[in-house]
Amino acid sequence: LLFRWGGEEFVVLAVSTRYRDAHILAEHLRELIAGHLFPHGAPVTASIGVAEHNSREDVQSWFSRLDAALFVAKNGGRNRVVTD
Description:
4 strands
């Protein structure tokens, strides 16, 4: 499931997907985006954070971990996937 989460941020909710497989999915999406030729001609990249929901945590804690992983991806050089 794909949701817009702000200006240029999106959430992909991959139900029944463990963090290792979610990382692989995120890396595949990142490669597809980076390799796509968009009409405006400028390259587009994606910084992606991945976090598996822990059944003992609330949604806010989960998204805090996800946001922290995204922050590391953006500040670590962009166009990368970081998994919590």
